[in-house]
Amino acid sequence: MISVHQLPLTPDGQTPVRAITIAGSDSGGGAGIEADLRTMALCGVHATVALTAVTVQNSLGVSSFHPVPPQTVGDQIRAVAGDIGIGAAKTGMLATADIIAAVVTACEEMGIGRDARIPLVVDPVSASMHGDKLLADEAMDTLVNRLFPIATVVTPNLDEVLLLTDISVTDEQTQRDAAVALHAMGPRFALVKGGHLRTSRQSPDVLYDGVDFLEISEPRFDTVHDHGAGDTLASAMTCALAHGFTVPDAVTFGKRWVTRCLRASYPLGAGHGPVSPLWRLGAS
Ligand SMILES: Nc1ncnc2c1ncn2[C@@H]1O[C@H](COP(=O)(O)OP(=O)(O)O)[C@@H](O)[C@H]1O
Ligand SMILES: Cc1ncc(COP(=O)(O)O)c(N)n1
């Protein structure tokens, strides 16, 4: 059985496993690259970064964002993968079609993707939990046509599933239907997250590889402090993949990790607080 503590830690002075997060910054520190860096650090992984956008954000929402030039995003990936070396990669907020295209080109050059050496987790972030847009409307086609086909696993939430497939997930059958539709878009695995299925006492996520379904379910927490849950899950999965886990094992590890982080989530500001990996420091 996989425990949340299972990822091996590296002895002092030795180089840990490395991963890259290709994502936007959340000035409120709850989601985005800040959530990724916290999870990767507390999973014992050295996190590297390709910053895609700076958001002006707090617990109440995103008021604006400023994309990084696409060439600079691609160059960050090349610089890191070429020197430091990475075991897995993750994308979050990509903001524009040109940034997506630059990420795909750099990933293909550096051996990142479903048929390459380095697995790629694609979290198709389209909006914040408050409904504020984080991806240009016209970028959806580029996401599906260019990035999905090189993804090892895609991890949409139910709002993103609706945008991508037109399927409104309400139960186990429609969650499976959505996983099949997403898998047909080219990733090796599709993970349909059930975090927004608020009618259930469980929080079931469904993984599909084109043949088999795996349902990974944990108890649901009744909390509004779930900012950054999707980033935290995808980052923990990325850490497990960087350690050489299979995708189903990485999802199982990530799910337990994010569930523990939801248990430790806390209020922040006047809106939604973040899920928290700080429990790993041993305070409670
Ligand atoms: N209230 C909750 N209780 C337990 N698990 C949750 C809860 N909300 C989300 N999750 C889990 O957290 C992960 C992220 O889910 P979700 O909220 O769907 O994504 P996003 O943050 O991208 O909107 C999933 O594994 C989901 O099942
Ligand atoms: C920079 C950035 N990346 C991702 C999210 C999504 O996280 P959430 O769905 O919790 O708002 C976000 N709000 N900001």
UniProtKB/TrEMBL annotation:
<dbReference type="GO" id="GO:0008902">
    <property type="term" value="F:hydroxymethylpyrimidine kinase activity"/>
</dbReference>
<dbReference type="InterPro" id="IPR013749">
    <property type="entry name" value="PM/HMP-P_kinase-1"/>
</dbReference>
<keyword id="KW-0808">Transferase</keyword>
<dbReference type="GO" id="GO:0005829">
    <property type="term" value="C:cytosol"/>
</dbReference>
<keyword id="KW-0067">ATP-binding</keyword>
<dbReference type="GO" id="GO:0005524">
    <property type="term" value="F:ATP binding"/>
</dbReference>
<comment type="function">
    <text>Catalyzes the phosphorylation of hydroxymethylpyrimidine phosphate (HMP-P) to HMP-PP, and of HMP to HMP-P.</text>
</comment>
<protein>
    <submittedName>
        <fullName>Hydroxymethylpyrimidine/phosphomethylpyrimidine kinase/phosphomethylpyrimidine synthase</fullName>
    </submittedName>
</protein>
<dbReference type="GO" id="GO:0009228">
    <property type="term" value="P:thiamine biosynthetic process"/>
</dbReference>
<dbReference type="GO" id="GO:0009229">
    <property type="term" value="P:thiamine diphosphate biosynthetic process"/>
</dbReference>
<dbReference type="Pfam" id="PF08543">
    <property type="entry name" value="Phos_pyr_kin"/>
</dbReference>
<comment type="pathway">
    <text>Cofactor biosynthesis; thiamine diphosphate biosynthesis; 4-amino-2-methyl-5-diphosphomethylpyrimidine from 5-amino-1-(5-phospho-D-ribosyl)imidazole: step 3/3.</text>
</comment>
<feature type="domain" description="Pyridoxamine kinase/Phosphomethylpyrimidine kinase">
    <location>
        <begin position="26"/>
        <end position="275"/>
    </location>
</feature>
<dbReference type="GO" id="GO:0008972">
    <property type="term" value="F:phosphomethylpyrimidine kinase activity"/>
</dbReference>
<keyword id="KW-0547">Nucleotide-binding</keyword>
<dbReference type="InterPro" id="IPR004399">
    <property type="entry name" value="HMP/HMP-P_kinase_dom"/>
</dbReference>
<keyword id="KW-0784">Thiamine biosynthesis</keyword>
<keyword id="KW-0418">Kinase</keyword>
<dbReference type="InterPro" id="IPR029056">
    <property type="entry name" value="Ribokinase-like"/>
</dbReference>
